[in-house]
């Protein structure tokens, strides 16, 4: 039937012509990413690689060819089935174009296109070294949290690290009566004890330092020593990093002087 399809004059309606001139049908191909699908114009998307669900389906095709470019340069070219999921796991960030051309047994062809930007993922971490870690660096990353304790006179070393981030924001809080809510970080180059007079008798957290936005994505902080006057009962650090692709990650650290 498909081999005899013809378009009725004056309309877009197709029907089988069983006499006279033989008409050869084009394959019908649809490409989709999630709920976004098209068999005509290109589809466009912008996501993390792990979020992409790219696929195509063809009717009346014997085989297809996938031609993938990255930032305008060839990336992949391969023969494939008439229906296939186009996995992008492991694709590095960048601008991609998927051109899928499917061929009928009679040699006719149809092409569909998807254009996508694979966003840059973000990971964040605190690297901490104290006596309670035996001065072995401990890594707190991607939303995790950790508790540590250190003598008042012992050194405390830390660094904030990230990959794929353009900017970070650091907050540090002091608290009494145990940790509350989400956690936050602290900048050791500033003497938090200058703020001791800000103690909240109700035990609420006191904001001790705010790096403001656009802090360094990777920064080795100066060694800090807990010393007199007595510090807060505990501290918490919040590290939030993000990039211009709109992807962000947060990680938390709690600490308590002994």
Overall description:
The protein is mainly β and 258 residues long. It has no helices and 21 strands. The chain has two domains: 2-6 and 14-118, Immunoglobulin-like (Sandwich), CATH 2.60.40; 123-257, no CATH class. The protein has strands spanning 5-7, 14-16, 28-33, 36-38, 43-47, 54-59, 63-70, 73-80, 83-85, 94-103, 109-118, 123-129, 138-141, 147-150, 155-163, 167-175, 206-210, 219-220, 224-225, 234-242, 248-257. A hairpin with a 2-residue loop joins β7 and β8 (73-80). It is rod-shaped.
What is the molecular shape?
Answer: rod-shaped
Approximate helicity band: under 10%
Number of helices: 0
Total separate domains: 2
Kindly report the spatial arrangement of strands forming the biggest sheet: 5-11-10-7-8
CA radius of gyration is: 29 Å
Instruction: Count every beta strand, where a strand is a DSSP E run of 2 or more residues.
Output: 21
Query: What is the typical, i.e. mean, pLDDT?
Result: 79
Distance between the termini: 83 Å
Question: What is the strand and helix layout of this fold?
Answer:
Elements: E1 5-7, E2 14-16, E3 28-33, E4 36-38, E5 43-47, E6 54-59, E7 63-70, E8 73-80, E9 83-85, E10 94-103, E11 109-118, E12 123-129, E13 138-141, E14 147-150, E15 155-163, E16 167-175, E17 206-210, E18 219-220, E19 224-225, E20 234-242, E21 248-257
Brief account:
The chain is mainly β and 258 residues long.
What attributes characterize this protein structure?
Immunoglobulin-like, 0% helix, 5-stranded antiparallel β-sheet, 5-stranded mixed β-sheet, 258 residues, 2 domains, mainly beta
